[in-house]
Amino acid sequence: MKIVEGGNVRVECTDSGKIVEGIVVTRSSKQVRINMAGVAMTFRANPKGEFWAQQSGMSFVIRTV
Description:
By secondary structure, this protein is mainly beta. It is 0% helix and 62% strand.
């Protein structure tokens, strides 16, 4: 999956298994800011090619590979 500003991405909650659509607000090589239903979250890159975020005790991931 290619992540581009203004594009849509699939965000998975690893705790519940639910997948939602988010809009890419900004992107850099190490992090990406996503807006999901009015909630903005910053995801940070890991060596596996994934972007991870945590909020309210839950983990979220965007898989790019």
